[in-house]
């Protein structure tokens, strides 16, 4: 039989530099998590990593991330802070429930506070899973606190 001369074409999708960097950060997070000792040590190191990542953010995002960190910890103390794709996140039973994405992370015009499907926010057949943030008011913080409480179950 003659070899086929038909060529196959495959569309190549590429990731942005920011997306590649986030994936690399996630791989490093997983490796670091596997190397750690006791559960208490892991929790302390995870929280320290979140606080350090927040400290690296630009002023506006940093201020929002610090407030969100405080609101999440006060509203749902059972959620564990951890880095997730290089972003501050909060997990229940090892699964990320909510996260903060700074505007600079993906060169966006606003920061995002979002929830993953582990969050218990189901409301009918449609509900929001992420919120754009340009600044935080006291009312915003109260709403985030309520949503985080519900999300944590």
* Class of secondary structure makeup: alpha+beta
Helix content: 40-55%
Low-confidence stretches are none
Mean pLDDT across every amino acid position: 90
Topology pattern, helix = H, strand = E: HHHEEEEEH
Q: State the helix count.
A: 4
- What proportion of the residues form beta strands (DSSP E)? 15-25%
User: What is the distance, rounded to the nearest whole angstrom, between the alpha carbons of the first and last residues?
Assistant: 64 Å
Tertiary shape? globular
Largest sheet: 5 strands, antiparallel
How many runs of DSSP E, i.e. beta strands? 5
**Could you give the order of strands across the largest sheet?**
1-2-3-4-5
Radius of gyration, in Å, reads: 19 Å
